[in-house]
Amino acid sequence: MLEDEFYCKVLRVLEEIATDVAAIRKNTEKPPVVGIEINPGTPATKQGDSDMGVVQVRLSKNPNAVKKATLHAKGSLISSFVMFDNDDDTFTVSGVDAVGNPVDISAVASLTPAPTSDNPSVLTVGPPIGMTFPVAAAGPLGVANVTATATWGDGSLGPFAFTLPVTVQAGAAGGIEIIPGTPSVIQVVPPAPPVTPPVTPPVTPPSSSGKN
Asked: How far is CA 42 from CA 34, 55, 56, 91, 188, in A?
């Protein structure tokens, strides 16, 4: 009888421990990654003291991504980014959980294939280092779509891809230029010919003949 009670108490204690362990594990586990996002840094001008770009960003997902994520408004995903025509920047890729919160994936994934720009004449992309890669405005104004793909080393997730549209716009004025317009022909009106006044013949007074 005493042995039965002892074993029952031991089982209850073990069940409580198992419940506590499960709760601790649930609280410490990282949320599953369902996508990735690109986080632009602060643009730096290549030369001069032009104003820095002020960004308004939210990421949009590449429709050709291998896997898609269903994200909620709570997250901080970005859909566009603005740089000046003489800016350099560094973009960082992170994972995204189901509600849009960032997740560090640098220890489990790599940027494979390397990030690309679909318009290198406007924006160039350099080789990645870990989860970051450099971008640089080439000079001309326009839009370039930067695509990054994260591939998990063990193949357990992904690959996930995102495309970030980047608009390159003109920076602060560093000088002036003269832009000629379209020449037009000036219509010259010839002057009117001079008016010659009429010549009035002189009046000859009548001759008088006197009678004596």
From this structure: 26, 8, 11, 9, 58
Q: Is the dihedral of CA 29, 34, 38, 39 positive or negative?
A: negative
Which is it for strands 87-96 and 35-40: parallel, antiparallel or unpaired? antiparallel
Q: Is 60 exceeded by the pLDDT of residue 93?
A: yes
Cα–Cα distance list, 25 to 85, 97, 111 (Å): 49, 18, 30
Q: Is the CB of residue 186 less than 8 Å from the CB of residue 93? A: no
CA-based nearest residue to 89, from 17, 166, 181, 158: 166
**Which residue, chain included where needed, has tokens 């280092």?**
129
3-state helix/strand/coil string of the chain:
CHHHHHHHHHHHHHHHHHHHHHHHHHHHCCCCCCEEEEEECCCEECCCCCCCCCCCCCCEECCCCCCCCCCCCCCCCCCCEEEECCEEEEEEEEEECCCCCEECCCCCEEECCCCEECCCCCEEECCCECCEEEEEECCCCEEEEEEEEEEECCCCCCCEEEEEEEEEECCCCCCCCCCCCCCCCCCCCCCCCCCCCCCCCCCCCCCCCCCC
User: Could you give the CA distance from residue 106 to residue 115 in angstroms, rounded to a whole number?
Assistant: 15
Query: What pLDDT score was predicted for residue 69?
Result: 35
Q: Note the pLDDT tens digit of each residue in 146-200.
A: 999 999 999 998 899 999 999 999 987 777 788 888 988 888 778 878 877 777 7
